[in-house]
Amino acid sequence: MQVNSVETLLANSLAKSDLSQKQQNVLKACLKLFSEQGYDRTTTADIAKLAGVSEGTVYKHFKNKREILDALLEPLKASVLPAVADEFVAETAKQHFDSLEAALRFLVSDRMRFVLDNRLIIRVFLQEVLVNTDLFDSALAMAKQRFVPAVLPMLANFSQPQHPLTLESFRPIFGLMLTYLLPVILKPELQLDVDQATDQILLEVTPLLFAK
Amino acid sequence: MQVNSVETLLANSLAKSDLSQKQQNVLKACLKLFSEQGYDRTTTADIAKLAGVSEGTVYKHFKNKREILDALLEPLKASVLPAVADEFVAETAKQHFDSLEAALRFLVSDRMRFVLDNRLIIRVFLQEVLVNTDLFDSALAMAKQRFVPAVLPMLANFSQPQHPLTLESFRPIFGLMLTYLLPVILKPELQLDVDQATDQILLEVTPLLFAK
DNA sequence: CCTTGGTGAGTGGTGACTCACTCAACGCCG
DNA sequence: CGGCGTTGAGTGAGTCACCACTCACCAAGG
Hints:
2 copies of one chain form a homodimer.
Chain A: H1 6-16, H2 21-37, H3 44-51, H4 55-61, H5 65-95, H6 100-117, H7 119-129, H8 133-158, H9 170-186, H10 194-210
Helix pairs in contact in A: 1-5, 2-3, 2-5, 2-7, 3-4, 5-8, 6-9, 6-10, 9-10
Chain B binds a DNA duplex (30 and 30 nucleotides) through α3 and α4.
């Protein structure tokens, strides 16, 4: 499975889109500026300057500033997450992991890499969520809708009578991932070794899955 | 140990402070508005209106809008967190928990309640962190500086040769707490039963601390 | 009558957005 | 081919609303 970076995926979708080079620069500039200073503290002058474009150009394609934000977030919501989830289902279906640990290792490292690659967009998204709670609901709903079916077959595969595997079993794993990912989201210039973190997570979580 | 709510602590500190009733209303209004709409999208007119005060009054005590934000965040940074940490150290020293589980139960539920009670301020703080990464460093540094000494005696007490207890042992616990707390921070109107969550966390984490 | 907390109309600056214009690219036709 | 209208991306000075902040004034209490 390819690493799915919104940054590169954005570039892809831009290449496919009918946006000119300058318009693409606008979006790239916005990603950088929004993620660093926040949407509200970024002026259209900032954007134009960083994109190497006049302010008028910004408004040739985007009706207003808000529409740029939507254009940045939309791929995340409408295309990237679903695409990734589908890919993931396909991958899990194909691979037929021969152990629970192997499956988990794939899932954990894959999802962490995804977040890592997309931390800038995720930052922008988080900023918005903190100001517009509706977004939270829709995001959660979609994450569930997409993720649960991806994980259910795995549950069925590896669940055993003495250790029933449920969605709740993923909570500790998810929590551990959060402890590694949150710092990187809050401070994007931090480094994170995904493989090492994955090892650590699996190490800490295996006693939990087989004990009790 | 008293529940430490920034909201009530804020009220306390306000009562102690030399702020008039109207000025206190300004701060309360700002907490509500900032946490809901964000700092940047809250106008001074909004603030005055909700506080039932004229715009001039807002500026009688606060030099500018930014200073109100600082006034809201300052107790969190300068007084609440340390006070709570100190209280916590005192409490742990006093109680001499007779089991690791009892100590953890106290720690987990106490900290979760703290976050829950202060979710509005924490929201405002998070918003700021996402726009000003310096804050992240200082917050992390302080949290460590205050929290590590509070927890070290516990480690010494309950660490056993066959199950050495380190700071890293807390990562899964912290992660699990995050899974319960994040939703409430992102959407403050959500409910959270701290006792139930605490039970759940301890249930999921005990095999981890004693196995391997 | 001074001090102190409060008022709200007013102001200056800023920032989102507009519009009249330029210019290069592209047919299209004599 | 070469002139020539059309198109549409790009420009940037200009506009206008809004918003943080001010200030001249007020009322009440010591």
